[in-house]
## 1
Amino acid sequence: MSPLTPGQVSELLQAAGPASMVYLIGAGGCGMSGLGQLLLDLRHHVTGSDLVLNTEIEQLRRRGATIHIGHDAGQLRAAHPCLTVCSSAIRSDNPELRAARELSVPIVRRATLLAALVQRQRGICVAGMHGKTTTTALLSFALERLGARPSYAVGAPVPQLGRHARFAPPLPLPGGVGDGSDLSPGPHSPAGSQPWFVVETDESDGTLCEFHPDHAIVLNVDAEHLDFYANLEAVCREFHSFAEQTRGRLVFCADDARLAELFAQRSGAISYGLNPLATYQIEPQSVPVSDASRITHHASRITHHEPRITDHGARLAGRASSFDLWHQGSHLGRFATRLLGEKNISNCAAVIALLHQLGYPAAGIAAAIESFHGAARRQEELFRDDRFRLFDDYGHHPNEIAATLQALKTLGCRRLLVAFQPHRYTRTQNLFKEFASCFAEADKLWLTEVYAASEPEIPGINGARLAQAIRARGRPVEFIADLAGLRDAVRDAMEPGDLVLFLGAGDVSGAAYELAARLREEMPTRSEQFSAALSVAVSSATVVRRNEPLAKKTTLRVGGPADFYLEPASESDLAAALKLCGEHQVPFVMLGRGSNLLIKDGGVRGVVITLAHPNFSRVEMVGDRVHCGAGARLKTVALEAKRRGLAGLEFLEGIPGSVGGALRMNAGAMGLWMFDVVETIRFMDYLGAVRESPAGEVNVEYRGCPLFKNHIALGAVLKAERASREAVEERMQAFSRKRWTSQPAASSAGCIFKNPNVVPAGKLIDELGLKGTRVGGAVISDVHGNFIVNEGGATAKDVLSLIELIRQQARAARGIELETEVEIVGES
């Protein structure tokens, strides 16, 4: 293997040009596939191989990479790469490696190429034995939410990031505060022109020191990877060298005694944790805040001013999802996370500390981290119903296992059932005693055989012997050698109320996914259970129906049925239904009068809720104000206002919808918009809480009100002006005449597309010559090109085909991307 440095690799790739070929041996691994994504972002050609097809390989292939299944020297020779990269799992006698040597193609390890790519931007490395994948993913997600658009390389899929590695293009020079551009720019670019590059660094094979980051987070050190390192002291030396190569901030956990020993006196080091001497001190929310408890500390190892004092021996509350963070004695803020357990709160604090050091405000950081769901295989919930919860987790070190079990116990399960696959013979041998004692929180435990990870077997080190050691400590455990038997044994033991956890860094995850699929297949009565619970939760005045046809409830007259259809009779019934949907994880859709809506032919899974009950449809006049429920028809509102001699609401008469739908879509006609006439609104969140707000405090936009993406409109007060009934009648008739001459009379959903900036959508469609185009019973209207009408017998598929045809024509002929105004819901 060529001893190239990251700098030399970077020069090699730049000299070869963006169209050069790079060959990846072991391309399907998370780290290697991430490299493939980065290289493709940089416009390199990527080819390579692996033994088994997986999702990562499929993603690379979709982006144009050529990934072979199986290793063959001929594949590498045919590719003519300028560089060959191999993962640590590739053996030295691999035929492709031999071919690369024979052809004198430079060969580097994964970390060397990754470090070379990091050098091109402003690197932030996350290191440590445990938690670095979650922390890297969280930091990348937070920077994305904060508008920094970072590059990143995470060691596991991150659903909220789309893919787990990205090389972002250079950013414009910053013009504002809080982008971190004043801190440690990358070596090859002026401050602010290059994005942050957040990377998970691997210490397992001695490549940590390939990286020279601008900033770094170090989470912990532990007796790990002792197949590579001689002892824990050697591990600590590796981390010390890494810290010496970090140019800017080094953020470390003050709760780790070894890290405190290594870094407390280092210039630029920033500590975080429960430790009262940490620069950023974590305080559980349950602990009262008192200025009187702040004092000044002077310690030999960590010296900061005015830290917040807590009992360092106390554990974070088991169900804590929020915590306070103190910065040098000042309250930085309260932060919340969806991640479970004390260790994840600590990881969050690391990210907050670094972002705060980079100049981001605490409120922005809090908003950025709160909605992060986690990385794949890190406390990943695969299944949940009224009976069971099933999780999959990558934990494979005794400390990780203990922390994960403690975190999941906080969910309040009846029993915690754990299935564990040891990872590597060397790790199992070196940490045998620790493995034997780390499952204390498990109520029932299974072990399977050790996952070798390319290691040779060590005589006497196996899953059966580890199970025997656990039994010797008085804890029952069952050993099952094969994964299929493990999956079946766990299912046979499961009882309602159990939480099940599959643990390990090998292929045990496959058994977890198979069990999740089986549990889903065993749920034919789930809808029956939900139906029964729904009937009990709401009053008898509420309408509840199964498999309700929806086509006739829309103005377009297409679409399939709803699993459940609900017309709540009161706000309390609506709140009860929403709560039940949340508890049962049943999705719901709000349906107004069915205008501006396209329901697909497969119908809607879950619950369709419509506020059509008279209690939600009232229209009352109070002076020159109209108080109306969300279910009231806009035409009824307009006619009632006319009857009372109130002007300003005439434009609502021709909009075929309800007040709630109009609020959600900020519906408009005749140059006027719903929120032009709204004074106050009343709405409910998805937990059933009701609030009111002046319209002026609500953000509205063209054809939308973001508030109602996660709230439900209950009603509004509309403002009007006194006028003669005759004047209102005359204006309403004028609007009506204009509408009938410019809009089709046949069934439609209203305007299909939002108007692009350059030309109205209807005019564009007319200019494209698409009026009268037909698919099945759906036709682009001859009267107005932005209407698709149902001339009888149309299906949602017909309408969708026309929508796609229009979009393709607009894109091809005019370069315009049309965005649908009509809301499309349901399944094909």
## 2
Amino acid sequence: MTTGTEPAVESNTKMTNKNIHHEFLLGVEKPGRYLGTEVNAVRKRQADVSFLLAFPDTYEVGMSHLGLQILYSIINDIPYARAERCFAPWPDRERQLRGGKIPLASLESQMPLKDFDIVGFSLQYELSYTNMLNMLDLGGIPLWRDERRDGHPLVIAGGPCCFNPAPLCRFIDAFVIGDGEEVVGEIASCFRDAKNNALTRGELLLELSKLDGVYVPAVHGKDRTIRKRNVPDLNRWNHPLKPVVPLTQTIHDRISLEIARGCTRGCRFCQAGMIWRPYRERNPSLLMEMADRMLQATGYDEISLLSLSSGDYSCLGTLVMSLMNKYHRQKVALALPSLRVESLNTPLMEEIKRTRKTSFTLAPEAGTDRMRAMINKGNTSDDLLATVDKIFAAGWQSVKLYFMIGLPGETWEDLEGIVELAHEARRVASRRGLITVSLSTFVPKPHTPFQWERQISLAEIDERQEFIRRKIRSRCLGVKWHDARMSWLEGIFSRGDESLGGFLEYAFRRGCRFDGWSDLLRFDLWEDAASQTQINPEDFLRERRTDETLPWDYIDCGISREFLLRERSHARLGRTTADCRSEGCQHCGACDFHKIQNILASRGETSPPASNNRPAPAPLWKKYRLTFSKTGEARFLSHLEIAAAITRALRRSSLELAFSEGFHPHPKISFGNATPVGMESLQEFMDVSALAYWSDLNELKMQINAALPQGLCLTDLRLLASGEKPIAEALKGFEYEIFLPESTDSAKLSEIEESVKEFLAASSFEIPKMIKGKTLGKDIRAFVQSIVVDRENKKILFRTLHSQTGTARPADLLAHILKFDAPEAQSTLVVRTRSILS
């Protein structure tokens, strides 16, 4: 069988950093996405089995996902295996790859996807499916599993989307159902054995099909039920202790400390709360150890206590107090991203706000107590309003409230309840802060009590969203909503069957990418795909009979069908179901009470360190001047990215930083004039306020350099003498070397010399500058001290003054004096060789 087209990219050439980065990266929006030079990235030269961990979304999203970091750590701890990473290229980068016929490659070694043994996709969201196909195509891998032969990578997938693998069976060789910590090692072992025994691809798939929790469409079909894999005890797994630290700012720029996995609350709409049962907590002592090692390995200033419901963690108060007592001095903040309304209490908030007020998000989900009983949310409107009052009373200035529309049994009174509850929350907040209402659309996910329900239509979504928007009009009460078209697509693919493979591929071939990004969603192409492939969306969004076979029935998530049907019945009667941790077993089927069962943390295992209330002696603060260079790949980092990387390195060192006061303390650090993206620099300065350091400064410099990403290097560190000017006042000028392209011939050099001669002879030279949205003229002649053309080495030596009124930049020289066009300027390497101080 054939797809009708060949892979878009075919190449046997191993691409070098120079090929990939130097020619192209200045032409993309965020070069830091594609460098792969992060702190803690692992680069193994030899391994029997090579994994490519592929995340079908942007670098910022993928690097925020804890699961990817866990698998990266586990695989690289296996002596005979290595793991590298790859993320979906943004459209500007895809255009470069396709235009240059460059295969999509890993970050660590720049090896094309097709050269790996295993390419594993983490599927967290149905709207990333077209990105997955795009990555396969760019990597030179046939999209259809039937077209892959010996020598092609094994394409596997894991994550919550795999609990209904049917829509992707055409493309994926094997699905991992459930927790991945144990099974990924078994897959590596299986693949190594297959290599050693020279097994064919078909024989390898047969061996993989024998692993618990692995679904292989070519072997199993739908004839065998695949039960998910469970990690019985999280205390046996402490990965990752050295997370890869992103170069660019990510969605969650912090360490994620998974305190528990699973949930027993039983919200009837929540797929995660069902498929990740049973509930398993980590012990506080292990969490304290993990936090310490992760902070030391990363230099982050925030810890996120991660769980489906962080407030349910049985030792939360003790853990939070222990963490705050230990890290308050270093200004490390805590975030609890998933708190239930009734679990937030005043002592907990007092601890969290000791360092920094992180954001608060509450999820009442429905507007009335009646509807919350139907979905088994287990809290009331009064609970929500009391919590909002506590949050603002403690000094927070904003709260986000998540609601869901389109739930089974929803009436207009329930929608009116969302409006009334939002206004009540606003009245409770009074003038203390902002309330934001966020609306999402209910999708009846597989393996939930609501899996048989219908999903409301696009017209119904628009009508209900407009109803709430019209009713909520206030400066201090914002409303945001999820794109109805995205919910439509999510519903189709989460509830779909094998017939959606052609629909998905057609949309991809037409150009659909990043469908979860509203500014890139091409809904017209999806509508066309439905028409051309004769897909009727209503077939997948409709209500299902309880006696019909569902596309995902052969996947066993551990929850029994009887339990789901009973919960559906209770929902229609408005009955709630108790939490099994406090009210006894509810017979959902997740536990075998031998190996698989709920695990609560050991209470009393960790006592919070006693607070020292004695007044501390006044600290002796000093100011240090650091000199650093940025070369090679680091030149593609922005000033903010460089500042963040150096700040994290300082936090990892033994230097104790000084911080600003207030609700959001920051290290007292000031930088000199920033170099633009693409420019190298051999001498940059920053001033740092810190506690007096009495040890060897050379040793401190080595500590900091060991924590910096490739291309950044601390070259000098000294104590500032009393009275020395701050760096911003001390800067007086810069010297640059501008390396012309190799193709620059003698005639071009003569032309450059003539332009330089005319400029130096002029008394003034005005160039256009955009200032506050207006184009104004700026005379740069007075700032330029010298320009020397070195014909032999094809470079220009450029020296400028710097003051509060401005400077002349190498970009000004190239664009306005030498008249280089954009491609010429982009291919010209600029190096700041010296920063002149007074």
## 3
Amino acid sequence: MKIFYLLLIALIILPESAFNQGWNWQNPLPQGNRLSQIQFVDSLHGWILSEYGGSLLRTINGGSSWEISAMPLWTNRIHFVDRLNGWCVGSGAPPFIMRTSDGGKTWEDLPIPEERNTGDYYNFYGLHFLDVFNGYITDSARGIFYTPDGGLTWVKQRTILPPREIRSIWFVDSLRGWAIGETPLLYTNNGGNVWLTDSTVIGGIDARPRKILFTDSLHGWILMGTVNMYRTADGGGKWTRHIIDSVAVVNDSDPKLGEFISKDLLFLDPQQGWLATSWGLYSSSDSGKTWKRFNREYSFAGVHFFNSMDGWATGGTPITLRNDYFKTSDGGVTWESQTSRITGQTLWGVDFVDEMTGWAVGSGGTIIHTKDGGKTWVHQTSPSRTRLRSVNFWDKKIGWILGFGGVILHTRNGGEIWWQQNSGTDYELEQASFVSPQEGWVVGWSDNYGVPLGIVLHTIDGGNTWHNQTPQGIGRLHAVYFIDSLRGWIATGGGTIEDFGNLYRTLEGGKTWKPQITQVNDSFYRIWFVDALHGWVAGQNGILRTINGGNSWEMKSPAISASYLVNIRFVDPLHGWAVGVAGAISYTSDGGETWTRQQSKTSITLEDLDFVNKDSGWAVGGFGTVLHTESGGMTTVKQSPSFLPLPSSFELYQNYPNPFNSQTILSFRLDYSGAKVTVDIYNLHGQLVTTLLDDQLAVGHHHVMWDGTDQDGKRIGSGVYLYQIRINRQTKGGKMILLR
């Protein structure tokens, strides 16, 4: 008689309606991240991971609509075994492993292997689960780790290899598996207890191995990341090398297509496959021996097909690197974009005068305007085609835009017409500060034969004339802020010894400037004051704060791992935000004493932000990114009347009888009324057989019967099956035997 045991998996499961989503996309729609990996488990349920993490797209209707949830940055791979259960792995110090049991709505942190929990930086790359319990991960230090319990515990498997990356792993059953990276091909016939090497397939830095996959126990492929691919038809006994595109071997300098890079591979069956590359999409009908290029317009990153005609892909145009995802219904001959956008240009500046009215400016002379809080945007006619760096409005009518090449644009009618003012310089103008519709200052910079130079311009007639107030010997000027006509600050920096971070102050309206702060190997990018006492400076290495009108400054941590912040905004002395590289948004509610990172759902660099109050704000950045929040950027959990507190505890009992023939009883006890209870049956492959119960129950003992049939009422065969009960956020399970 086998000993049966219970598995306790504490999963965080909250109803989707319980979340305030914090930051959401306004352009492009539905989102603008670079997208990479695609996985579907059936024709309805699929996921798309953004490049470098940041967000996950999820569909439950075959791609007719997608929902976006936040993910950790540097998420490298996702893997789902059914519509509910999935895992993701990523890089960090330490790296991370996460699990979801609600289809990717919410994720919980899993323990990482003891060998990687040292505080050192590691990359988890490969990820493959056979079912809801048995899975494998690989990493950047030749590690292969196995879990028998869904990721609660990990065992390192022994490999005789130098410390190099293992990027992809695949098992066809509980015994036979393969792994590949910057090493020879590894294989095992005993579940990973012993890994052997196959020297006929060699990875390496140049080969850039991407992926290994099998469609059955015999047919497998290895994608090397270049023009090379390996295939086997005998379960790995022999691997044959194939060239995907012979033209790419001698024509890798095409200025439109760039270097040939293989990125993703999918086979529907042993014969029909699809390949995503930087040169377009390829199709094979002979198991990968030969490939035909179907699409040349896009550089693809991920691909998935439901059948020979209907599929999805991620990527963009090679020239613009536009982020997109596409749908095809004709086998990949034509693709329909699923993204709408007002612009794909990088947006460098944003300014709102109230909750409805705002402008954003960017590269290529882009000016866009909204009158409904960003729900819709329209282009305004721009007299310049240069990079427009910032926008500053005094009210709904009067505003200025600064750009490269000394560009200053001015409007007196809300942007219906923009006039170009004569700045008298060809410097790269970055930021303006106005204390009235007539008086203001502008700063910028130039690299004059490698020597960084700054410039300060002043106007007292609304910009009709500008006068030079540049102090002698100043470096690149990025920021300016005046709190009245006399008191103001400017900031410099290039992050080099020749051009480090300096903060200057004037008490004479810019006639004289005195240095206040000097930080070597730093850059100061933006200054913001909310009154005469409280001010902040966003910099490469942190945030400066003053609470005494700039008489003294102190450095504060921005609560992000890479503290490269390029802009900052406060609405009062307490509430502020800072944005920067990799989609970083940091928030403070205590005046900058402490900061917390908010979920931006993107890894795209954010260049500017603006808030009109504690709740309503916008952030803009690369590829036309416009993000909006109506909650101050906070992602909060709301108590729903139908979602009651957690039960203090519950008990699940072994099914009886066990083994059973015709029916068995599952019993459990609840200690809290109104709990939401779900009882599921799985097979040993982790596939859902049937759901026995999905309802709210009262306190006390409960019983549910299973008669050995699936969801459609069909009798299933003898074997070992798994039962799982989920009560609000808690999960327990066990095993049982059906004997026919």
